[in-house]
Amino acid sequence: MPTKRTLRPHKESFIVDWPVFGELSRALALKVAREFDPELVIGIANAGVVPGAVVAAILDRPFHSMMVSRRYQSETVRATPSVFGEAPSDVRGKRVLIVDETCDSGDTLRLAIAAIVDAGALEIRTAVSFKTGSFVPDFHAMALENAIVLPWDREILVDGELAPNPKYEGLD
What we know:
The chain contains three helices and ten strands. It is α/β, with parallel strands linked by helices.
């Protein structure tokens, strides 16, 4: 069972529902399409896969995922993220859009960019649903300082039924 997530005390939470997520993904895809024509979209697993796949579908581009995480295979949250696995080989010689759900410090996106550069991408741009800190991605749907609660993270399966995720207990 997940433990209660400690959200930054100085930040209010912004609870995203599915319709808002859909509109933000649509807006993000339109912003990208106006300035960049990616040949491939990469979503940063875990949470960046969902907006990445939606943006790729709207742009009608192939989609891949890549794991860059502070939490994956760890009991605690690491100070810096790590890349797990390799960048997709399909990036070689292509224009690539890297999508994540949020960016604060930019550590995750910088690691993803480095891995995609090493794999031979021709050009790389970054896009996030929520810009929440000092790092400036190439594209973002919304800039805010709130902690983000995503719709796919708000409920979890408990005994075969959807139930409120205890790590967000008390947020409404």
